[in-house]
Amino acid sequence: MTDAALVVTNLRTAIAGANETIHAVDGIDLSISPGQTFAIVGESGCGKSMTALSIMRLLPDAARIIDGTVAVDGTDVLALPEAAMRNIRGRRVAMIFQEPATSLNPVLTVGRQIEEVLARHLGLQGPPARARAIELLEAVGLPDAASRIDDYAFQLSGGMKQRVMIAIALAGDPNVIVADEPTTALDVTIQAQVLDLLKAMQTKRGTAMLLITHDLGVVAAMAHRVAVMYAGEIVETGERAAFFARPSHPYSRKLFEALPGTAPRGTPLSVIPGQVPSLATAFVGCRFADRCDLVHERCRQAAPGWSSLSPGHTVRCFAVEAGTKPPVRAVALPAAVSAAAAGKPNASPLLEVRDLVVHFPIRKGVLKRTVGHVRAVDGVSLTIQRGQTLALVGESGCGKTTVGKAIVRLVAPTAGRLSINGVDLTNLGGSALRERRADFQIIFQDPFASLNPRMRIEDLLMEGMLTLGVLDNHASRSKRIDQLLDQVGLPKVSRGRYPHEFSGGQRQRIAIARALAVNPKLIICDEPTSALDVSVQAQILNVFAELQRELGVAYLFITHNLAVVEYLAHRVAVMYLGRIVEEGEAASVLHAPKHPYTQLLLSAVPRLDGMTRRGEIIGESPSPIAPPPGCHFHPRCIHARDICRGSYPPAVVVAGDATHRAACFGYE
Amino acid sequence: MPVMLWTDALVWFLMATVIVFILYARRREHLSAPWRRVLTSSAAMASAVTLGGFLCIGLIDSIHYRESLGAVKGDGKQAYAVEVLSGLDWMLSDLRKRQEKTYSAPFALHLFQKESLERPDGKIVRVYPRLHHAGKHLQDENELTGDIAWRFASGIVSGSAVAIALVMLGICWIARHAAAPYGAMLTAIMSGATQVRWRPAFLALWVLLIGVGLAASLAPHYHVLGTDKVGQDVLYQALKSIRTALVIGTITTLVTLPLGVLLGIAAGYFKGWIDDIITYVYTTINSIPSVLLIAASVLLMQGYIERNAELFQTTAERADIRLLLLCVILGLTSWTGLARLLRGESLKLRELEYIQAAHALGVTHLRTITRHILPNTMHIVLIALVMEFSSLVLAEAVLSYIGVGVDPTMISFGTMINTARLEMGREPMVWWSLSAAFSFMVILVLAANLFADAVRDAFDPRNAMGRVAAGGTKA
């Protein structure tokens, strides 16, 4: 393939550690033709990002490329001196990073940062450069580009920043774009917009793109070819259609099976046992052998070579080599609406929230006068039955986390009523509130920030029991800790260790055990799996489901991941700008969404079949400081009428089932 | 009769705390790991040995007693001398007692200035009189150079001999600890291949002991660093100054610590009006020039001590209480930096999820602060303390120099510099007093700074990673 825009052969990158060398990238071959997207997919720690950085030659100091070639349009960039490399970066190969918030310089205007590239690579200065920058910003769909060009990064939303990043990447008119998780930090509707933009740009300019992602949905939406990376090497590569129809490496198949939404509710998700091995290991056999179901003697003795399944679809696996044809992937059927899941609406609910309002005052000036409010939560009513799961879904900034924190009284509600187990908590304070705290607990998103690094696991678990007076003597508490660790699937020896000795998934298990220690009836789960890899997420979701079956604990599951909702939740509430716009049985809401916002949210999720077609997604969430008058959603709604601009719609029953309600004038 | 001065009590209390902390930290991985990283820094090991030497002198100087006069007073009680002496005074009693009349240069046999002497024949001549104590053993003044050279060599040899013996013993102990053969450990340490940097530590020990050996062989017969205006040995003064510097450096932190930690964490953790008040207080204190504030407080204190002279039995006690109060004053004015650092850190920590989880579990504020916030800010406290030490030693010198520091009867680097400055304009110059104070102080402060630097590096998580990576590249 001499016409390929980017050819990587046998790339090896090693990071020097204290006592060992980590082979982060261990012999990667790939080639991308102009106008094609090549996606590398895999879990964290597989060496995906190191591959991208090696191609750009932007590696950290401790890492170095030890072998291989990277040819951009036929030029081996690894052989170039650093000065010449600067002419390649941005001009021939450009990179889009994951975090738009930190990828832009906060003290330079957006225009200056684009003009910098134009001046460096195209020699454009002054007015022509500015004109070109405006053109680029218009091309990436930044509204009102002519005035936005003088904005600073803090004046732009996350989606806009990523558009600017794309504009900067395109400024040098590169032949290859390396996009490292370009949409991971974005909301699902913004992700859809950015992916559409990348696709459109690519078709128009014929750029080759190396897309690095952990999200198979994104791969399905974007890629022409797919490579699955595991422990520093590519284990499977193929055309998108062939790969999605028949993922053949055991690891690829496990990745699909671990996705919630592919397994019916009530059955545990398939998990990959163990963890990605340390890349400092000197591998002898297949790197996946220790975690593979199909492992046999040979896998441990020799590394499998490439075997071809069909033209262009190759796998490193002895099982495939031996002629075992992996099965065609079964496409998941929508979970049937089970009557049993409807619960008992007449029983007194465990949690009852009525018209909860949380406003944060904005203070200004010397005297700190209140000049406005952030309407984080603006009249939310919820009920959760015992032993049930309510999923609270919405994009970032819609106030879902604040609802969770208000329920456990980590933030004080401004107005509204809140009762758990029939006890009104709204006005409880001090020791009266402390007594009730055992009933409701919270689990947070970031497993690294949610455990005190200076405390041993048993002290972490003991703390809640001591303060809330669970069990009366040390021996029984100590026994309880063993039991808790067992319940969340951790060995008993973990109790004497410190949090830093555990992986992200294990830490999240510890956080769950800490919440469980005080025997809560309700656990607020604030995005508990969004920081985890998909295989680890599957493990944690299984723990949640099992605990609910065993202990009858209820969950308020706050998330933006609709697949997780489908797997775990009985009921779903969709939140937009501080209010709930639609609520109902999970299956009913997810498969027959009524509110235009829910429909938008669902259509924006990239699906594994890659076949989704959706209406255009307009705009981004407005600020909760000044929500739009009338229905908050009307500026982004294609069905908006005059009445929507005038007043906020009441919630109405929208389906035969009396529990499915939506706040939309379209159903009056 | 043993005398326990206030500062002695505090110094020994501080030593005990440090020892307890070491024993406690040894068994806790997250506490001991960064300290083990300190041990892998050559500069830290060498400066730790140097600081250890200074600390030994300071500690010996912190055991005080009053000598028995032998006689029994009328009421049947033993009579004691008015003068309070320390362990160091006892060890250096030769140096202390061998006072000359006035200035004399290092290794000089004669006074620095001419005096009128009456010859036996009645004639009065102006000569440099012979010193009473220096070089008394010499038959002929021409033997001076040879004698010094010989004693110099024997000092180096004896110092080295002791150093080698100690190093051998040390390696024995390390080898036993690591369960490695002695020879292998010896070659490993000598080639600098050990994880813990023993080689620079042993080198520093060697240099230190050569210094001690030289002093031991020369000081009994000469004034190695000369004498001052009243004829006191400058080496003795410099050694005595070490305790004053150490006391100022350490006890002040005892005062700073509770204030800085409590107020800083309270401000960051509670926010709101508590934060407003604390921030207001420390901005106000910070906006007053600190020397002015300290001078004002010291003068107040001085006035009080003079009005209540009857409270103190001896001059040493009076000087000691003045030193202690100076520490308190320095502490009261220097807690703001630490408080500000901790306020920022607590502001960050209180939003972290484990603190929120603790709130959700109903953990009280006090418990949240002591169990969750304080342990996670400890590294900042440690770094701030070690860094503060050297600046306090320097502050003492400055304050004594402008006359608001320690009691004039107490020997300190500041008072040494203060008296020496008057003679700087003299021709020929009296340089030895100032340079002795200067070099001792530089060695102490430099060692403290290097050590603080290594501690800061070891506690900085990013640096720790960087060092691991860099070390790997070398390997």
Low-confidence residue ranges of chain B: 464-475
Number of strands of chain A: 24
Instruction: Note the main sheet of chain A.
Output: 8 strands, mixed
The multimeric state of the shown protein is: heterodimer
Q: Mean of residue pLDDT of chain A?
A: 86
Label the overall shape of chain B: globular
Structural class of chain B: mainly alpha
Description:
The complex is a heterodimer of chains A (668) and B (475). In chain A, 32% of the residues lie in helices and 23% in strands. Chain A has an eight-stranded mixed β-sheet, sandwiched between helices. Chain A has an eight-stranded mixed β-sheet with strand order 18-19-20-15-21-22-24-23, with helices on both faces. Chain A has a four-stranded antiparallel β-sheet with strand order 2-1-4-5. In chain A, strand 7 (176-180), helix 8 and strand 8 (208-213) form a beta-alpha-beta unit. Chain A is globular. Mean pLDDT of chain A is 86; it is low at 332-344. Chain B has helices at 6-26, 29-39, 42-60, 87-91, 93-97, 144-178, 182-190, 198-218, 234-270, 272-287, 290-307, 315-334, 336-349, 353-360, 365-401, 413-421, 432-459, 461-474; strands spanning 2-3, 64-72, 78-86, 115-118, 124-127. Mean pLDDT of chain B is 85; it is low at 464-475. In chain B, the strands form two sheets. A three-stranded antiparallel β-sheet of chain B has the order 1-2-3. Chain B has a two-stranded antiparallel ribbon with strand order 4-5. Chain B starts with a strand and ends with a helix. Chain B is 69% helix and 6% strand. The A-B interface holds A 15-21, 60-62, 405, 408, 410, 433-434, 437-438, 440-442, 444-446, 449-455, 463-464, 467-468, 498, 500, 511, 514-515, 518 and B 29-30, 352-354, 356-364, 367, 371-372, 375-376, 468-473, 475.
